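The data layer described in this paper is built around a simple, fixed record for each protein. Such a record has a labelled line for the sequence and another for the backbone structure tokens. For reference, a complete record is included directly beneath this paragraph.
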Amino acid sequence: MKKRILYVPLFVLAILIVFISLKFSGSKTDTADIIVEAKQEEFRIEVTTTGELEAKKSVNIPGPTGLQRASIWRVNIDHIVDEGTVVNKGEYVASLDKSELNDKILNENNELQLNLSKYTQTRLDTALELRKARDEMINLDFEVQEKEIILEQSQFEPPATIKNNEIQLAKAKRAYKQAVESYILKTDKATAQMQEAATQVSKKRLKLDFLNKLLVEFTILAPEPGMVIYKRSWNGTKIATGSTIQPWDPVVATLPDLTTMVSKTYINEVDISSVKNGLDVQITLDAFPDKRLTGKVIDVANVGEQNPNSDAKVFQVLIEIYESDTTLRPGMTTGNTIITDVIPDAIFIPVECLHSQGDTLLYVIIESGLSITKQEVLAGKSDSDYVVILSGVKENDRVFLSDPEGIEKKPVILLPAKLTSNQ
């Protein structure tokens, strides 16, 4: 009878042990996926972004430089060789639409013919006018000589007759003098008219010569040997067949120096403060996933610009690539990892583990054995995924990613005041 009494408590105790074991093992199974261990190793703060390869140096392939002088404000590209075409110096690259320029050449040629006709007409008119003036001057000279003879022959005539002949001679001399002066003025006028007509003809000839030379420039040739890369317009689209160029930016393509490449990328205004010249960059290529390149930041824009895909402001950043690789081509998409800071030996956890109470108190939820505590921490630098913990967490501490049930009622265990003030 005593043995039966002893077996009952042992049976109940065994059931309790199994129940507790199942309870706690089930709890850990439920929460295993929301607990991480704090790591202690080198911590790198990175800014990741995509970019596009372009040559650090390149030679522009310009279109005609006299479009503005010719009052041509836009011209279409009739044809351009395929992007990536390798050309030698002087080889054909592109041709522009000549229709507007041909119309101007035709108009200038017509105006030149009109000015030549005007020049000829002016020359004939002035010649006739000057001939008439010379004839009049000769006739007046003969009249003066005639009046002088009459005066000489009237020496024995009455004084009144002599006086009259003297007056007639004076009038003849005066008329002759006026005719001489008029001839000189007409000669000056004729000279000025001929010079003006000749100047107009010269201007039209120069303009026509300029337009004909400009017409030759509408066939664009390579200034240097290299690979043709299409130029991008102000809105980022590539200039190709059918595109329009303006006189203030007549470049149609470039010949890049492929020995030194850069990745042009844009950094969000939130991250730009940590990006500076000289920072190391790790680079990948979408076209060659296994290829790894290195480089450094060489230029950070001082002024931001609007991101066309969002309301955020972005800043242009240029990254020079150290390696010279024949497979690199302008326009390839790059993945850029800019290393903004490196902490050699840091304890860090996911940013989701960090909680706040009030404005300044930060804490994490730590699992220690069968207990769970809310521990105040001092946070250091962070990136988009992890945050460095300066104090409050040790390596391999198990930290909750989300709040476990019932944790709200527990108080936060504060750091020692001295440690907090030192930090």
Notes: DSSP finds four helices and 24 strands in the chain. Helices lie at 2-31, 99-153, 159-217, 417-422. The two ends are 69 Å apart (CA to CA).
